[in-house]
DNA sequence: ACGAATATGTTCTGCCGCACAACTTAGCAT
DNA sequence: ATGCTAAGTTGTGCGGCAGAACATATTCGT
């Protein structure tokens, strides 16, 4: 009997991996939770005091990934515990959020602090592939120049409004940029090679991912979804996409294309979508749908926020439009809730504005039909990171390799570039 | 800064868990792949020869979970490798598939062999909750009586056409059985307590799960989805449900209710569904929809297979009906493919018959719209286990605890019941 | 103000799990 | 037969974590 692959994790665990796992756990903890007492780490991990001490010392002295400080504020009896602090300045990543109208770049330190930002507007005629790659590279150079003398760039992540192949950042389809089948990850890797000599680029290149997927990641790491293992993040930026986390892990799918909720058909009698189908969710609740319903022509400068504002101001047409949209929002969200049974559905991008005004409508419409069971514990919430969720997600993506194998990555980096 | 849960796996790994993991890996391998040479295990796991030897010896002598045999057929030079064989007779589970019209029970041995089966018809007036619990218990008793003297029952799993709470097998909603909010897992635990003295029931009770979820599990373990990490299994038995596996792991959702694809709204202008919504997928492609489209009244004895047969025989009405159904099938499957980007969509239950005849229609309709990207590598395939997938899945569910911690479970069982 | 209580860091020892090397064994090939 | 090959077996060593004993820093009680 042939047996291709019996189990996701086919390989046996060895002691070396045990250490790596525990180091990773520790570093990830302080990266996500910020400065943490050793005592807390001991309690949370279940590892022995002495082991935590050894692990922290390893992270601190071998790679300088963390430092140990005496706590300022003291509470309770007993010897005060050292605080393990991530070395924010020393280990950094570059994060980018490529949007239709701009490129946002940031230097993010270990622990998630944004150390500097840079926004480059993208004029409609500059969305050309090569132009975007070049602009990203020059932005990267400016960010890299601001790196301190001690600082190391341990990765580059970029969020794009595109269907992206997970393995290599190849952009399959990005209607809002007008791209199709473009080797974005590869091109960026080449363009950044001389900007970042001796960085991790040789290993893994620039990490490109879908903006909604990264939004979900960011909300789980630093937003409303902290501590939640099953969430759906909806990104409304012209199109609609979903980033889904189930069982604590991002849903990727076979090629990395999972979460294309925008092209879920909800209304077979609806408008034809760019993708060729009829009544995709995106055509019913996307930016253009909202504008059209409110009597505007997409591109005339009106935004979803404007519509929301005029609805709040009492405009009947705007109210009607949002009511219509919320009807379809409820259908789509209901479907997603039935399929994923999440704890949270996070409304990001322009959907955030819609939720603010229409939450009651959406909830009551969802309650009118469908399985109540999966809906009883779900909460619809606005994104906590606002417009920056994809950017933060890109940073998390870029940090992922370091967090997965702290000493391995840090030392190999030290060997390469000092 | 408060920090509820930083990471799915917050706990540190200790050496004990390392051993447990590797033992689990080995046992799971032979359980799924059947008798395997030690040399193969060495190669697959990456562990050292001596380690594999020690692990196998541990599984064999400490708990009798496997035995080591000399291989019969010899090929190639060198000393022949021992074959690690799962102790099928010694470790068994009870698996049940509760359906609308019958209860199927089976004794399944380690390695997945069905050792005996028992089918109890369920008359329409016997679907009463207490009746079903009692019938299951008597079936269980018959199966237990057939256990050999050496045999140990290490778990009980049951598949139900219901929305089931993951934690305790509480049935929230089972329209086809006419149940709502019933403590099925608990009741079965009580009913089976004296049938299975000294079994694992005290620990975890009877494991109840949704039939589609278990179908997916079974197809991944022993069916067409072997070696695939991203699959959608569709179960068509009166209603429509989906069992979804992503990244190699079953999609559970927060309460364990994920995968309710039958109540995904695909046609807002469609019929009203039992759940209260309009145009649920189930109302368009479920058994009743097929029958009605073909001009039959549900309950008149006609089956989906009959319709498929008459369509094959040339009946225009049947052809038209299936054409209509396949249109909605394509919409729903397209949505699922967009959301999950699976490698396989497995058609189980009555959908199997539909796929056999309508595959071309479904595929071409899916191709007409929607994102091509996520569809380019997906295959629509019939279930390989046919009507038994849920039953096999129930067995896998029941074995899960043993496979996760072989020695722990086996020894605690030995301590309890000899 | 001083010692007791408390909680934590530190050090040392021990156990456990795996790798590796050296040796042994079983079958195959010439 | 004899060597070749590939695997099992055995003993040693290393790495990783736990636990105990001790050291240390802070708070609390009087």
- Supply the CATH class of the largest domain in chain A: Alpha Beta
Task: Quote the beta fraction of chain A.
Answer: 15-25%
The number of domains of chain A: 3
Number of strands of chain A: 16
Describe it.
Two copies of one chain form a homodimer. The longest helix of chain A is centred in the C-terminal third of the chain and has 25 residues, at 316-340. Mean pLDDT of chain A is 91; it is low at 1-9. In chain A, 43% of the residues lie in helices and 20% in strands. In chain A, a hairpin with a 4-residue loop joins strand 9 and strand 10. Chain A has three domains: 15-86, Arc Repressor Mutant, subunit A (Orthogonal Bundle); 91-212 and 390-417, ATPase, nucleotide binding domain (Nucleotidyltransferase, domain 5); 224-383, ATPase, nucleotide binding domain (Nucleotidyltransferase, domain 5, 2-Layer Sandwich), CATH 3.30.420.40. Chain A contains 14 helices and 16 strands. Chain A is of the alpha/beta class. The structure holds a DNA duplex (30 and 30 nucleotides).
SSE layout and pairing:
2 copies of one chain form a homodimer.
Chain A: H1 15-33, E1 36-37, H2 38-45, H3 49-63, E2 66-69, E3 83-86, E4 91-98, E5 102-109, E6 114-121, H4 129-145, E7 152-160, E8 163-164, E9 171-174, E10 179-182, H5 184-193, H6 201-204, E11 207-210, H7 211-222, E12 231-237, E13 239-246, E14 249-250, H8 281-285, H9 287-293, H10 304-312, H11 316-340, E15 344-349, H12 350-368, E16 379-382, H13 389-404, H14 406-417
Parallel strand pairs in A: 4-7, 7-11, 12-15, 15-16
Antiparallel strand pairs in A: 1-3, 2-3, 4-5, 5-6, 8-9, 9-10, 12-13, 13-14
Chain A binds a DNA duplex (30 and 30 nucleotides) through helix 1, helix 2 and helix 3.
């Amino acid at each position: 009997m042939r047996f291709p692959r019996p189990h996701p994790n086919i390989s046996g665990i060895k002691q070396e991996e045990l250490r790596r796992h525990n180091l990773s756990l520790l570093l990830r903890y302080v990266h996500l939770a910020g400065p943490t007492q050793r005592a807390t780490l001991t309690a949370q991990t279940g590892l022995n005091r002495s082991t935590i001490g050894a692990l922290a010392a390893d992270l601190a002295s071998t790679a300088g990934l963390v430092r140990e400080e005496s706590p300022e504020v003291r509470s309770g009896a007993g010897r005060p515990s050292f605080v393990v602090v991530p070395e924010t300045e020393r280990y950094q990543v570059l994060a980018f959020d490529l949007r239709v109208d701009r490129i946002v770049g940031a230097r993010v330190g270990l622990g998630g602090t944004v150390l500097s930002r840079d926004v480059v507007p993208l004029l409609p005629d500059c969305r050309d592939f090569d132009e975007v790659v070049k602009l990203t590279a020059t932005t990267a150079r400016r960010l890299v120049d601001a790196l301190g003398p001690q600082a190391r760039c341990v990765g580059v992540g970029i969020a794009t409004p595109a269907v992206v192949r997970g393995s290599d950042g190849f952009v399959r389809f990005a209607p809002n940029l007008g791209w199709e089948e473009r080797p974005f990850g590869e091109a960026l890797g080449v363009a950044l090679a001389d900007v970042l000599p001796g960085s991790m680029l040789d290993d893994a290149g620039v990490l490109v991912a879908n903006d909604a997927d990264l939004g979900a990641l960011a909300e789980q790491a630093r937003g409303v979804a902290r501590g939640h293992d099953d969430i759906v993040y909806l990104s409304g930026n012209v199109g609609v996409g979903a980033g889904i986390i189930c069982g604590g892990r991002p849903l990727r799918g076979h090629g990395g294309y999972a979460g294309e909720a925008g092209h879920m058909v909800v209304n077979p009698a609806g408008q034809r979508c760019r993708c060729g189908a009829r009544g995709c969710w995106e055509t019913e609740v996307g930016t253009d749908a909202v504008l059209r319903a409110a009597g505007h022509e997409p591109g005339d400068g009106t935004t979803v926020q404007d519509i929301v504002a005029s609805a709040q101001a009492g405009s009947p047409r705007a109210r009607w439009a949002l009511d219509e949209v919320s009807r379809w929002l409820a259908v789509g969200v209901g479907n997603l809730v039935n399929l994923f049974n999440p704890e949270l559905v996070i409304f990001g991008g322009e959907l955030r504005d819609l939720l603010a005004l229409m939450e009651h409508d959406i909830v009551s419409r969802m309650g009118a039909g469908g399985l109540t069971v999966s809906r009883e514990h779900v909460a619809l919430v606005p994104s906590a990171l606002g417009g920056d969720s994809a950017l933060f997600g890109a940073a998390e993506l870029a940090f992922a390799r370091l967090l997965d194998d702290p000493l391995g990555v840090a030392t190999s980096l030290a060997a390469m570039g000092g």
